[in-house]
# Entry
Amino acid sequence: MNIIFKILIILAVIALGLGVLVFCYFFVGKAQEAENITWGVDFSQMQAQSLKLNWKNVYLAILDDLGAKNIKLHTQWDWVEGDPPSPKASDGQEKHNYYFDDIDWQLAQAKKNGAEIIYVVGMKSGRWPECHIPEWASNLSEQQQKDAILSYMEEVILRYKDNEEITYWQVENEPLFKFGECPSWYYNNTNFLKQEVALVKSLDPSRKVIVSDSGEGSMWFDAAKIGDTVGTTMYREAWAHISDSFGFYFHYFFSPVYYSRKALIIKKLFRKDVICIEFQAEPWASKPFYDVPLSEQYKTMDLKRFKDNIEYAKKTGFDTFYFWGVEWWYWMKTKQNQPEIWNEAKLLFQ
# Structure
């Protein structure tokens, strides 16, 4: 009995020691600040319109007034292919009904202004409900949905692969993180994600493919295995949605070095770079912004938090950040007469 007790004590000490080492690795120390940092923004036409903004005015202001030269476009399958394919013709082929006018315009404006684009393609492309499935495809079988997604992606890549302003393809948006309203099969395994990435690379081998994952809830291993570059989120304040009537705010207590040490592991094991493609710069509230008073929004984002987040980001050692929330900045500036965050961001881009 004494021997068993001693063994248990030894194992407990070893486990405690390993725990201390892991804690120190991820939470103790400092990362070297990058000499040159690229600042960009995420843009969602849907988000701009949900704030009752003229989305073209928002986009032009990002380029002309804000001065951003790096934009991640969150395009949506349900907006590009809102209508179902036409019945098969005599040759047995379906005719897909695509609407690319808005994206054509966004890319043309980016090129005109010398901006570079990360193009998000796939079913889960960001902003609630995350998976943007056309109504006509919502009741298809799993295989039919997969085939439809691949057809859509192929059309996108073939249409835009010669656009020099596109520097990366991003396949899906956090496809490994269980968040959003997505088909039941979506998170079963990584096989379909691998198929999507393989399709994109076969159609356009000239560009790297980003696969993104949660910065707070993942070690990024699967993203690094599948993609050429790992994209990560970086959030400081969040709302935990328990039910429609209950939830709470919480703060992520990760130190900046937590991100840099994880990125170092990815670099050592997979020879892949990690960039932040979703850096919190808007509130995370219990409801959409237009249904929440400013006093509530300020609990998770205001000018002070914005400045603090920028300093936090610099301490991670990363050299690339895409702000999540530019539509909200513009809404605050034009609808709420609160231009402070927009003006503060301009200092980074100009």
Summary: Residues 2-27 form the longest helix (26 residues). The mean pLDDT is 95. The beta strands are 38-43, 70-74, 116-121, 166-171, 208-213, 229-234, 237-243, 246-251, 273-280, 320-324. The first strand starts at residue 38 and ends at 43.
